[in-house]
Amino acid sequence: MVPGFGAAAGRIYTTHQTGVPVLTQVRAVGAPFRATVVAFALLLAARAGAQQQQGEAALDVKSAAHVRAEYLADLDTLHAKIVDLAKAIPADKYNWRPSADVRTIAQVLMHVASEFYYYTPRSIGGQGPADYGPAQAKNAALEKISTKPEVLDHLDKSWAHTKSQFAASDPSKLTGSYQPWNMPLDRAAFNMDGDLHEHLGQLIAYARSVGVKPPWTK
What we know:
Layout: E1 4-6, E2 11-14, E3 22-25, H1 31-54, H2 61-88, H3 105-122, H4 135-142, H5 148-168, H6 185-209
Antiparallel strand pairs: 1-2, 2-3
Helix pairs in contact: 2-5, 2-6, 3-4, 3-5, 3-6
C-alpha cells in the first residue's frame, strides 16, 4: 500500500500486504523528515516483498525436519482413528448419511483416502501415485467406492503412499515457501491437518449417529 499522509496533523500511515505493517504518527513535521520516514517505509516494504518472492527461509533445516516429523506423527494418529472407525462401522451403514445433500459414510472415508493419495503428499512438495491421473476426476471416482473391504484397502494404500512421500522429502527443501502450495511447511501442515481433523470429527458424529462408539473412548 502506498504511504498516505494526514494533511493537517502530519500523520504518516504505511502498511504492506506482505505482513510487515509500519504505522507512524508524527505531528507538525517538516518535509525533510517526512521524506526520510517515507523512504524508510518504502525500504521495509520492498525488502518484505523481495523476501516473499524469493521464498526466504521461515525455518532452518533442523526445524523443518522437526515440523515434518510432528506433522507425520499427527497424521499417523488421524489415520489410525479413521481406520478404527471404518472397521467399527457395520458394512450395511456405509451408505448412511444424515441428509441427502452431504456425503455418505463411505464417501467421507474415500474422500480421506483421496487426500492421503494426493493432497497430503502435495502439502510437503510430493506427488500423487504415478497412475493417479487428473486429481479431480480420480477423487470423484474414488468417492463412488462404497464396499467396506475396498474402502479399508484404499485407506491403507493411500496412507502407505503418504508415508513414502514423507520419507522421500528433503527437509532442506522445506525451509521456505515451496511448490505446489507456495507456502512454508508449518502453514501447509496446519492447513492439511486441519482439514483431516475436520473429517475425523465428521466421522465420529456419523459413527455415533448409527450407534457406533469410537473404539478409543472409554
